[in-house]
Amino acid sequence: MISRKMLVGTIAAAVMTAGMASGAMAETTIGVVAKIGGIPWFNAMEAGIEQEGKARGVDAFMVGPTSADPALQVRAIEDLIARKVDVIGVVPNDAKVLEPVLQKARDAGIIVLTHESTASVNKNYDFELVSAKDLGEAHAKLLAKTTECKGGYAVYVGGLTVPAHNAWADAAVAWLDENCPDMKQVADRFGVAESVDDSRNTTLDLIRAHDDLTGILAFGSQGPVGAARAVEERGLIGKVAVVGLFSAGQGRKLVHSGAITGGYVWSPLEAGRVFVALGKMLAEGGTVSDGDELPLLGKIRLEGSNIFANMPLALSKDTVDGLAEMGL
Amino acid sequence: MRTLLQQFRRLGSAGELVAMVGVLVASILLFGAIAPGFYAGPVFSSMAFQLPELGLLALAMFVPIISGGLNLSVTYSANISGLLAAFFVKAFLVHAGWVSLPVALAIGLSSGLAIGFAIGIIVAYVGAHPILVSLGMMILLRGLGEWATRGGDISGMPDVFATIGYGTVLGVPVPMIVFLIAVAATAYLMGRTKEGFAIYMVGSTPAAAEYSGIDVKKTLVLVYSVSGMLTGLAGILMLARFNSVRVGHGDSYLLITILACFLAGANPFGGFGKVLPLAVALMSLQVIASGMNLMGASQHLATAAWGAFLILIMAIRAPFLRQNK
Q: Which residue intervals define the domain Periplasmic binding protein in the entry (chain A) (predicted)?
């Protein structure tokens, strides 16, 4: 029995030492629960959390569940409550599943911050680095600048029922209608932007059908890549602009060849830093109101308990390589 | 060492329990020493809140394993049971207060039972391997569930569900009480009834069981029906914990339930294993997970620790098993 215990102890201890957190307890403790650990997006967020934690003297760390199952996020939050952290941050996989446990956290006097989850109820604040409207408009402005408000354009989304993509598209189209009355949308929205092939084929068809096509707005990770390939194949670089959000690693070559004009996302690294900055501010009794200048976020808009900043991250020739190296 | 082994042999299945308790105590002592603030009420309460949903699913996996089979549909069966209950409550009983709870429980248990019964019938009378049957059922349930809900969720249960998911009685979390009752009932069925005895016999040597007058087919139907009912209970508990149900909640638990059963000494080929060591093994897994969370270790590392723990226990157990032959 003794030898058995010792064996368990030795091996477990060996496994643990690698994962030991710093022993020193800082003044404020902030735990952020990611959707899933070990993927580039949340690795970047973790880097931001740790970087900002050091800068502000806060004990800040990220908990990354091993799968995107919301049940695992509930467990992680239970443990954070038991650990008596001051602030819990979370990027929910499923906002509704987390409501009861976040309620429990708030009952325990813990400040709750969410990100990418404006619908969450049991939170002090949700913060969005860029609102759907601002993100859509940023793309519209880029398209308008590139095409000088001339010709026709088409809009791709990941699917006609994907709420975020369609909200961005709505905002972009509304801005173009108002500010570029000469530009016309040549066809209804296409739900092709999660497939490179579909986006490419649709773009080839559109080029054939519409001589005046000058731009593609693609919201969906594969849309700009597929559209840009079609533009490249037809030798139309510089004549048909492709604007949208895409993964930097996948699109960097096309950006450098000019086939993709550019686009905007938001930065997980910045989001990680904001969790810490905002969490520390609130833990020290700070308050948020509409129009405030907040650390890192700049001037914000407050709607209910949702904080909207306007800090889109440009995907352009200058930024795409750095982002690709981070794996984004 | 030899006398120690012999002592353990004499203890028989009680030895397994003593060993698992020893492992649990060892892991508590370990994390008490290295994880800051481990010995605190809230930490143990947090563990007691987290354990039951996985625990019920592990029980649902345990009974088929003893019979020499496997039930891969446990998580989706729990989802579907929870979905049906949530759908009914949402449609008719949103303002019915506490009445909604027993109704939801009845719907959850009976739909779990129906799913398990169907698996049992196919396993027993078609003779297909339980892995294939339950895998088919798992995919069927997932597909049906996704289709019926369009990938969405049903949420907004009456408040009484929160008192089950997050309430305590005399400081003990309600989910833990539910789990302990299920453990007691399963332990009674497996250890004290002739049906339970038949399950062990069928798992051990089906042919011998058949010739000794045990109705193997009926026993198999019973096995999967019990397993199904336990998943139904797990589904209701998850509904109470999450105030919401969606196909796919908890699907990361599937392999962990199998891990827990083997950790507790259930024989992969059936016939051997006891319920109480399983309950204790689950507690050890929870201590490891929460202890590592408390230290701020990576969740991936916690998973690795679970795997290392299983391999370690298997290695330690091997000489005992050899002695038994």
A: 30-285
